[in-house]
Amino acid sequence: MDSVPTLIIGEEDFLADSKVREQVNAALSPEDQRLNLDVLDGAMPAADLLTRLDTAPFFGPSRVVVVRRLEAMREADHDALIAYIERGDSPTIGIFVARDLDRRRRLFLTFKRLGTIIEVRPLPPRDLPGWVAQRFAAAGKRPAPGAAERLVALAGGSLRDLHHEVEKVAAYVGDRVQVARADVEAIATRVGEASIFTLVDAVGGGDAAGALRALHDILSTHEPLQVLFMVARQFRLILRAHTLAGSHGAGALAERLGLPPFVARKVAEQARGYQADQFPGIFAALEAADRAIKTGTPPRLVLETLFVRLCEADRRAGARRNTGAES
Considering the chain, what percentage of its residues have pLDDT values greater than 90? Predict the structure, then answer.
């Protein structure tokens, strides 16, 4: 493995972690990893990060530096990292991980020109049951018809959550090879789509108290940025369903959205509660919350404020609609 830097980018952190392990294991033996593997955070001072990237291997042929959360690096420090990449001939193998970067800016374009980019996108919903079935097979289990689909419906689309749920269900059934739908119902944690639907329903109804209750439930099992990503994804689906309303039947809408039919029906129901002019404000608020969390504002406070304000905005929009209807 050469010293060309690798950028692993995307929202699916479980796949990102798998790619990091593959890269590290390809470069270093388990013994060498104890001495020649550094895992850093992108928010650390750039001078310290670059010093570690420029440190030669210690009693070994290679050295690997993994920089997580590259999106948290200050923009003012990007030039220093770009200069390091452009210089080449690094004594280390640099592996950089980011949920997202501005693909128009020099940092991303430098990785594209001089490095290797590995995309880790969320799996399409239709592929999730197959992925769950593969994880069960790796654990020596065989899901009965409908069991993998039910686990996805309960646990949502996060591969990390699904991986943990597969492990729980496999332990629950013990020596039994087949996993029944009833086993999934008995042990799987009910998070994911159902919780996000509850949160978005509360926002759509202007119910701030209900939104905060749903938010706190989700935060007990999910990281704040993951919650923000899930909510943003839900609103993107609602916008698409709103745009397609009236021109597609239920089956065609599910196919266009890439969702199971029962999920598509719920998204379509939520879309009926919004007007087209509400979406720009919603997405602007979500982007502002993302920036606030990444720049150090307490994440729980950011999310609580976000959903209270979205509820207030929905109540105002509802009042305007009622006023218009009366006139």
Answer: 51
